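// run 5 | inverse folding | seed 20
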């Protein structure tokens, strides 16, 4: 499990990206790169990293479900994800 401070930092980045999205789009359309440089670094959507909603794990993230591979496997085996079953042939 990721530390709570890491999870909070990622949420802060997401909020900052949402806050400056319209301003960034306007500056990019105008070609004002000096103005873009004055915005906070975390206002760039590139700095946001996908993290598991349950554990905060940054690697092995399954975008369709929003969780890491570990929690996906646990939830699938417990039957908490509809339509997902363990493969057997």
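// decoded
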């Amino acid at each position: 499990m990721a530390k709570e401070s890491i999870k909070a930092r990622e949420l802060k980045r997401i909020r900052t990206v949402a806050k400056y999205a319209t301003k960034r789009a306007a500056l990019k359309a105008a070609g004002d790169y000096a103005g873009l440089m004055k915005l906070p670094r975390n206002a760039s959507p590139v700095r946001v990293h996908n993290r598991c909603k349950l554990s905060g794990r940054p690697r092995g993230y399954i975008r369709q479900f929003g969780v890491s591979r570990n929690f996906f496997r646990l939830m699938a085996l417990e039957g908490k994800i509809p339509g997902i079953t363990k493969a057997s042939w």
